[in-house]
Amino acid sequence: MSSYQFLHLSQVNGVWTIHLKRPEVFNALNAGLIHEIRDVAEKAKASESARVLVITGEGKAFCSGADLKSGASDSDLGAVLRATYNPMILALRGLDKPVIGAINGPAAGAGCSLALACDYLIAKEGAYFSELFVQIGLTLDAGSTAFLMQSVGYHKAFELAATAKKIGADEAKVLGFVAEVISEQSWESRLQTIGAEFARKPTMAIALIKRELQKAHHQDLATVLEMEAEAQRQAGYSKDFQEGVASFLEKRAPQFRGK
């Protein structure tokens, strides 16, 4: 039931499941994949048959973040965020049905943001989360500024953002943003069970829970996204970002200068 290029969509008994389908680049986000995720979220919102949306990845990774080989270093990153990532994140958070993040492997950079944008996270043993932005001279984006604060508080959020530390599935569960860690052997069956359980929940109540929890924070997500976009626009023109991308592609340690 999928007509998409960069993801596979299945629809079974009210459970819509996205499999990110760029395993050759660890499901890195390009403009096409971002658009397709947003399109599915918008279609799920409009569909009476959709009860829950599940997002997971094909291959070894959930999502490795932005595809740095797509020439992003030559762009106004604020404009890129406003045109692509921000509408996708708003569509997921605005979906009046539960969004399950099934984290089957690394969720890094914007891939970590995509994971944290989900309402309920489960993780396979061996999966990890990392806000890698600082390693290439960038700040958080795609909602991570809001999502980290909501999940772990200021000091832990600063630690994760400023160090790009990898958080394994078990530690993520201790921190509170992963609900369940699942073995490789039980992954597929447990994922189906969780999807079915959420599909049976009252959709209106879930929608209200999502809306009220998000309203409970002092700043709305759109304001945070705009703040991120402006900060990322500035960071995207920095020499540190150019060096970060170059060092990544050349597989060497970066030499940041704070400029």
TrEMBL record:
<dbReference type="InterPro" id="IPR018376">
    <property type="entry name" value="Enoyl-CoA_hyd/isom_CS"/>
</dbReference>
<dbReference type="InterPro" id="IPR001753">
    <property type="entry name" value="Enoyl-CoA_hydra/iso"/>
</dbReference>
<dbReference type="InterPro" id="IPR029045">
    <property type="entry name" value="ClpP/crotonase-like_dom_sf"/>
</dbReference>
<dbReference type="InterPro" id="IPR014748">
    <property type="entry name" value="Enoyl-CoA_hydra_C"/>
</dbReference>
<dbReference type="Pfam" id="PF00378">
    <property type="entry name" value="ECH_1"/>
</dbReference>
<protein>
    <submittedName>
        <fullName>Enoyl-CoA hydratase-related protein</fullName>
    </submittedName>
</protein>
<comment type="similarity">
    <text>Belongs to the enoyl-CoA hydratase/isomerase family.</text>
</comment>
